[in-house]
Design brief:
Elements: H1 2-25, H2 38-63
Helix pairs in contact: 1-2
Amino acid sequence: MRTIANLALVASAISFVVGFISKVKLTPVPILPCGLSAETLLIFANTCLLVAITCLLLEIGKGKK
């Protein structure tokens, strides 16, 4: 679970930085043909953080049994 949490944290950090830069520049990121908006990247960063928190809480819960 710790590996999944670490990967989610890294994806969240990258997504947050790219989304912040996209928000400042006011242009979508040209990853897809239509581009990804800053809002989409920031929502993805939020979701990755929630996944990381959930994985770490599950690991803590398993350790206490």
